[in-house]
Amino acid sequence: MLPLCKKSLLRLSTADGVAAWYHASPKDETTLRLRRIPFDPSGRFDDKTLEQINSDYLDCKQYTFRDAGQVSNLPVERFSVDEPTAWQLVAERMERGINQPQRRTIPVTALRRLYDWLRDRPTKVEKEFLHASLARHFLSDPRKLVDLFLTSRAEFAPYDNQTEGFVEGRTADRFLASERSGTDPLVKQFQFQEVVHLEATDGGLRFHYVDREVSPRRSSKNTGPWLFADGRPGTESGAGGMDLLLSVEDERGPCPVVGEIKVGRDETPFFALIQAMTYAAEICTPNQGARLRRHYPSFAGLADTSCAELALVFSELPSEITPILATTESLIAELYRKHPDFGKVVRRITHLEASLRDGRMDCRCLGTHGKPS
Length: 373
Prior knowledge:
Elements: E1 8-13, E2 19-26, E3 31-37, E4 46-49, H1 50-56, E5 61-64, H2 65-72, H3 84-99, E6 104-106, H4 110-119, H5 127-140, H6 143-156, H7 172-177, H8 184-193, E7 195-198, E8 205-214, E9 226-228, E10 242-250, E11 253-263, H9 269-283, H10 286-295, E12 308-315, H11 322-338, H12 340-343, E13 346-357, E14 360-370
Parallel strand pairs: 6-9, 11-12, 12-13
Antiparallel strand pairs: 1-2, 1-5, 2-3, 3-4, 7-8, 8-10, 10-11, 13-14
Helix pairs in contact: 2-3, 4-9, 5-11, 6-9
């Protein structure tokens, strides 16, 4: 039996298969009063018992005015029953709303909101001052940054778009032949070399190039429609992304590495850390791990989908940014020293210094931080 709902809408199928909408209100405990939408304002209500509706219209659907208002985005509860134009608009929007594919949600994490705020800061706020102040703030209480990261990872965990690759329609040849400036020369060199070997105190690191400009949130209309959790359309979900997606391998198998490159005064080391942690929180979830395995041969053997590494690559840093680099390195050391739960997810953070000379990239390790053994 249909539930009695004061002032609701009924969607009934007519004999010719066309959906008909009715304005409904209870007459008594077993009877609904119906008026067809659109209707003649001078017409009368038809009365049907709930048994009649259940018997004659097996696919009947009833929507409260609250439901109808949410689907149609109209103030349905304020419409008079004698407003045929308004109710016709309600019916048209209801048809579109219930027939369109269910929208899928792209989470907006706490770290993503912080990263966006830093990126879009007011122009009157000096970048270096803001970043240095925040780095010192988190250094005084690293738990705040750890909680931001772990909360963000949990927020992003429900996102599932395994059937769609992170990047589509990309050709390496065109990119390598481009004369564009910015960080591209270093990205190109990583891509050209494919493997970057670094001498380090732990015996050396080998970063394997996988891809560039990878957005963990990329979701196209082919698998949607998608909406960000804050209501924005997901049309820009593939914009931007991490400069480099790399991999490292050990006895446990491959591990994804989020690589961010900062040249000159591009951005500070603290900003690079927040940016890389944002992407890491969005890529080291079980769903994203399955997506990596499916779309990148480099991660076919990925066993642990709950972890990632970060590689922060700096080039030509001006001297005035050096103190921020030192504070950021101290902050990273404290993240691992005081909070083992962070080290379980972000296995290691590596600082690199890169430069191009005569078309070749010199890359050296400035330091690595990881979970204490």
